[in-house]
Amino acid sequence: MSQFFSNVEPNIIDDEMIQKAIEEKCPEDLGDLARQENTNVKAVTELQLSFKNILQIANLWPLENLTKLQLDNNFIEKIEGLETLVHLVWLDLSFNSIEAIEGLDTLTKLQDLSLYSNRISKIEHMDTLQELQIFSIGKNNLTILEDVVCLRRLKSLRTLNLSGNPFCSKEHYRLFVVAHLPSLVYLDFKLVSHSTRKAAAVKYQELTKPLEEEEGEVLALQETEEAKQKELEYQQAAFVEYLNGSLLFDNLYGEDREVAQLAAIPAVEDLLQAYPSWFVLISENLYNYGLEEYEKREATVSKFYKRFYEILTVNQQESKRTISDFESQNKRRLDELYQAGSDDIAESKRAQGKENVHQLWDALMTLEALVSNDLEELLQDFKRSIDVIASAFIETIQGIYPFHSIQCRDLENGQHEKLMEIIFATMEKLEEEEFGEDVEDVEDLLTDKNTIVNAINVSHHIRLQKIDKRESDMLCNIYKWQNSETEKAFQTECDRNRASIKKIICFINTLQKELDNPVIVEPTK
């Protein structure tokens, strides 16, 4: 790199460079409002930093909505600093000095990636780029043809450029790549023909068939895991995860050695066999109730936002009509004002124009006030609905309706009492030598009365704590949901109202500037 640095000064991306690039992309004839919106870093979706002598990628994190980034023709040596740009779809890092593929793991939406003309020697670290369709890594230092096999994992890949790499000179290079990447449509800027695809499949079938079988097994396992994860996420959203089936019971008794050992006592064994079915029934009732309530919550939120945007749409249509009526007159007025020059007639027309602008301001602000009132009423209704749903859920969980966690506690307490009765009765029989069966195992368990009673009580206390924790988690989740949905809805309206008023102010200011400095509009040819 020193040969380049001797003539130019290498740069690191900073705020000044970013802001300058953003402003360069903005057309000069943009209005104040549009320019302000386009130069806001959070609103920027495309950024071009080509030929900037950049040595290191940094300080791009504020550009959280960036979808297209050009960093080609620089001195970049390492892919870094892109972790937060999760919306990137198009990334150009061609003509740099990059030596390794890295730092792309979070860019899961990437569809087009160019690493052309770098110093990369291995294709790696690309498994998360499942939406990648176009990949250019030509003119690098790739020597091992088998490295392209890892690109099989990128199921969306259709266009690949490898030209200019050392392995391209190998015999049957093109057939090897097409055989191992059968979904490719274009390879090295050429359409993959049917004959090439057929010849490649025949020549390398002994290599590709085991891969296909292995991938089939992996895919089946992946689909199963994804289905499980999706189901778990659904249950978590409903606050009933691990309540279906015997999962909660297994969690309570799975590590209880004392009770498991006591199963050697016949009466205890009978008790333990009957207990799970009752506990599982209560858990499943609670599970089904939770799912039903989740659907109600989702429907309530969906209904609110549907109505919210319906009200906005009506208001926006009315605002557009008001502005359209004004602009049809305003264009004619500006033309007349331009022709009038600076005499008294011009001042009269300017004063009339300002009055009309003021009337437009009143009209737009009135419309905004009306929609704000409508949305405030809608928000209050929504809050009441949310509160009712949350209260009903809390009351159910705490014990007002037939299936609730109190039943779990009652069942556990009853089970514990019966277990203790059996233990005490067995101990009495052992003392009076009335235990008619083989008592050796039972005597070993009940040698120390205090020890066994304390152990059983501790286990019982732990199970009650787990039941209480499960109830507490459900109540905390519903409280969080209640607060989150309410705050989100009110914040959405607050942000909308502020943005709307800001746009109105900028629009009115622009109109007033046009009156003060009228420019005749040339008719479009």
Report on this structure.
- This protein has 3 domains: 2-203, Leucine-rich repeat, LRR (right-handed beta-alpha superhelix); 205-237; 249-516, no CATH class.
- The chain has helices at 2-5, 15-25, 32-38, 173-180, 194-203, 205-237, 247-253, 257-262, 266-340, 344-398, 405-431, 440-445, 449-516, and strands at 11-12, 46-48, 54-56, 68-70, 90-92, 112-114, 134-136, 159-161, 186-187, 190-191.
- By secondary structure, it is mainly alpha-helical.
- The protein has 13 helices and 10 strands.
- It is flat.
- InterPro entries: Cilia_flagella_integrity, Leu-rich_rpt, LRR_dom_sf.
- Keywords: Cell projection, Cilium, Coiled coil, Cytoplasm, Cytoskeleton, Flagellum, Leucine-rich repeat, Repeat.
- It comes from Zosterops borbonicus.
Defining key terms:
single chain, 525 residues, mainly alpha, Leucine-rich repeat, LRR (right-handed beta-alpha superhelix), eight-stranded mixed beta sheet, 10 strands, 60% helix, flat, Dynein regulatory complex subunit 3, cytoplasm
